Structure formats: structure tokens, C-alpha cells
């Protein structure tokens, strides 16, 4: 049976024209149905994960990280792209020890001003950095030595390596239109010489670009892609993009009659795929509903989907994460910013390792929260025996608000 998928196509604004159209879902595509959503829903870590590990990134003035905008794991090193503080790509080993900076800031041909995307090209053994200020992709070898660069006449949001000497470019239409460089496609394929060899996913003027990851890589290094404000995930295989997953939001899909342009937002009652990651076990995706970020976990083995916007750590201490960025095999990697753990520090300070007192302190922390949120959280408290060890206390006590972010390694369980 063929289904209809929401694919957003925006045109020049016309009062009588629908700006959202539908494309047909191909046979054999995995459908992941999101049947019902609530404003508050919760999961325990133990529902999804087997283990939690924290990796503190080494902190020194010369390599402070403002935001983990992108994170890649390669050859047992974490590559952290920071657009806020260092405006650089910093390399840490798997224990979080600082190793080096990839490239340098500057206006020279070997340098970048504002790095926006890092790609690891295993076909050519290169590290590729897109500099949005210079509109160029800079190529380094695996040791960080400059090799060459490709300049553009337009702005891209991000890019991905598809195969040897072939890149997919996803465009920043808002910035291109602002500078009168309108383009007719969302996606273009470019060779290593900078020549456009194919154009995909036609674009109509005034389509906004959602803030999410458009590309991801599967375990066999295949590229996955989802256009802005879309519910389908495509896989690049056999020289073409083919539909692989359909996240069916049903009544929560953006209706065909809605009007959206560069300056409008999606109403809270509707949603779409924002970020996705495929691991050997699951499809992980994020979406927003009524202003709250939700996390979806789909088991490829059991075809089970679970999702929530409150994830509560009942495995190791109480620390959670601020976002999930990437994966290492069947481990999701999240990031936790030290300035956001003050509440947990206060709970630890009040309860210590007294776990009976800990549960009472957690209950007190709900004061002032919305009723629906209290009910969700209280149900978790009543069914969970939270424990805090001396090791947990020492770890949290060792963190200051001025430290570099903490990576959270979450081992996915079978469910």
C-alpha cells in the first residue's frame, strides 16, 4: 500500500496558493508512526540505555569550548566544532584530554573564519571544513596539514561526502536570497573540482530552513538525508537518494493549508523531524511539540517506538544531557553544559548519599512546575529507587560553571 508523505515545498507567497505539497511514499519504506503526543511525557534512562558514562573535556583558557555545535568521533578522537567561543575545531581523545586544534582562524587560504560543518572524507583520507564566512570547503589531511580548498559563489547550510570526490551541498536559501543569489534546488551534487554535476529536491522561494541536521551517516558510512521541514529520511545508495524511513506524525503533521515563509514559525500543535541518527540498533530522532523538545527511539529489531520529552537518569547519579549530538556505534553521545547542573548540585548538597532523603528532595524540586509535569515526574519517583554514591557526589563537586562541556556516552539497550 502506498502512503502520502508530507514534503514541504514553499513558493512565492500567494494568497490563494497552498505552499505545502505531498509526495508519494515508495513501497518498502519503513514507516515509524507517532500516534499520540502529550505536552509532558517521560522515560527513565533504564528504559532505553544499559549504561551511562561521563567524559569531561579538559579545560584550559587556550581551548575553551562555548558550544558543541557538531561532534564527530574518528580514530578514537572527538572532533568538537565550536561556533561560539573558539570558533574552531578542537580535538580531544576518547578520555577527554585535549590534543590539538584542526586548522587555524584567519583569512588566509589555509584558514577559516567561521567553521560551520566538519566532514570526514574516508575515501580521500581528508578532513573537510566548511567556512561559511569564506564560502569555501577547506581540505586537511588526517594530521591536520592543509591540502587545498574549494570556493563557492553561494552560501550552504551544510554538506556531506557521498562517495569518492562527490559531495552533497544543502543550501542556506535565506542568506542566498538576502544577497540576491536565489537557487532553484535544495540539494546539489558537486565534484572535487567544485563543479555542479546534479541538482535535486526543487526549491520554491521563501521556504525557510529549519534548524536541524540534514545529513547523518549510517554504520556502513552511507549518507542519510532529510530536507528541511520534512518527515522522510533518504539514503544515498547506487548513485541516488532513495526513501528509507517515513516518520508518520499523522494529525500532528503540518497541514497543507498552512503558510510559512522565512520569518514564520510552525505552530506548536504540529511537528516535523529535526535531527536524526541511525545506529545498528535504532533510529533516533528529535522533534518539537508545544515548544518542548521530544526524543524518539525506534528499535529496528522489535519495530517498537518510544518517545518522551522528560528523560530521567535512574542509572548513574541524576545528571542527564542538554542535547544528543552523534553516536559511536550503539552509543549515543550527548553533551552536558556545566552551568546547567546547579540544580543537581543543590539536590546533592541537601541529600548527600541518603537515598530516602534524595527522593524527598526530588519531590520538593517540583514546586512551581506545571501540574501535568508534576504528575509525570511523580510517577517516575514513586516507581524508581534513585541512588547517589560517593563517586557521584565527588564527580559533580569537581565540576565548575567555567569548565568545558561534558560528553555523555549512552549505551543503547535492546527494547
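^ C-alpha cells above, recovered residues below v
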Amino acid at each position: 500500500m502506498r502512503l502520502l508523505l508530507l514534503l514541504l515545498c514553499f513558493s512565492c507567497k500567494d494568497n490563494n496558493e497552498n505552499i505545502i505539497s505531498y509526495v508519494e511514499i515508495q513501497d518498502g519504506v519503513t514507516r515509524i508512526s507517532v500516534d499520540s503526543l502529550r505536552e509532558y511525557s517521560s522515560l527513565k534512562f533504564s528504559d532505553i540505555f544499559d549504561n551511562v558514562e561521563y567524559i569531561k573535556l579538559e579545560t584550559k583558557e587556550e581551548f575553551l569550548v562555548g558550544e558543541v555545535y557538531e561532534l564527530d568521533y574518528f580514530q578514537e578522537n572527538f572532533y568538537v566544532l565550536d561556533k561560539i567561543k573558539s570558533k574552531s575545531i578542537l580535538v580531544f581523545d576518547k578520555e577527554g584530554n585535549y590534543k590539538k586544534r584542526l586548522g587555524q582562524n584567519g583569512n588566509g587560504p589555509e584558514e577559516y573564519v567561521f567553521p560551520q560543518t566538519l566532514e570526514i572524507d574516508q575515501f580521500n583520507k581528508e578532513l573537510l571544513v566548511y567556512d561559511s564566512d569564506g564560502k569555501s570547503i577547506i581540505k586537511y589531511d588526517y594530521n591536520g596539514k592543509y591540502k587545498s580548498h574549494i570556493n563557492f559563489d553561494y552560501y550552504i547550510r551544510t554538506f556531506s561526502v557521498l562517495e569518492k570526490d562527490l559531495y552533497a551541498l544543502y543550501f542556506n536559501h535565506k542568506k542566498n536570497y538576502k544577497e540576491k543569489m536565489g537557487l532553484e534546488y535544495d540539494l546539489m551534487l558537486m565534484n572535487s573540482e567544485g563543479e555542479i554535476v546534479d541538482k535535486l529536491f526543487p526549491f520554491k522561494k521563501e521556504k525557510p530552513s529549519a534548524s536541524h541536521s540534514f545529513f547523518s551517516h549510517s554504520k556502513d558510512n552511507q549518507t542519510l538525508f532529510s530536507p528541511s521541514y520534512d518527515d522522510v529520511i533518504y539514503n544515498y545508495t547506487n548513485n541516488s537518494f532513495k526513501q528509507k524511513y517515513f516518520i508518520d506524525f499523522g494529525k500532528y503533521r503540518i497541514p497543507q493549508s498552512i503558510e510559512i515563509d522565512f520569518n514564520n514559525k510552525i505552530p506548536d500543535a504540529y511537528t516535523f523531524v529535526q535531527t536524526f541518527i541511525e545506529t545498528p540498533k535504532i533510529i533516533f530522532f528529535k522533534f518539537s511539540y508545544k515548544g518542548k523538545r521530544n526524543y524518539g527511539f525506534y528499535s529496528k529489531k522489535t519495530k517498537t517506538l518510544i518517545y518522551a520529552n522528560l528523560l530521567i537518569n535512574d542509572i548513574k547519579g541524576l545528571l542527564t544531557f542538554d542535547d544528543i549530538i552523534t553516536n559511536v556505534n550503539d552509543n549515543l553521545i550527548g553533551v552536558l553544559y556545566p552551568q546547567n547542573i546547579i540544580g543537581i548540585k543543590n539536590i546533592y548538597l541537601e541529600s548527600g548519599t541518603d537515598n530516602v532523603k534524595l527522593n524527598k528532595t526530588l519531590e520538593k524540586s517540583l514546586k512551581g512546575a506545571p501540574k501535568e509535569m508534576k504528575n509525570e515526574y511523580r510517577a517516575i519517583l514513586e516507581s524508581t529507587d534513585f541512588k547517589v554514591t560517593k563517586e557521584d557526589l565527588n564527580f559533580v563537586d569537581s565540576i565548575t560553571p567555567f569548565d568545558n562541556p561534558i560528553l555523555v556516552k549512552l549505551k543503547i539497550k535492546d527494547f
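Residues 28-38+62-312 form a domain with the Neuraminidase fold (CATH 2.120.10.30).
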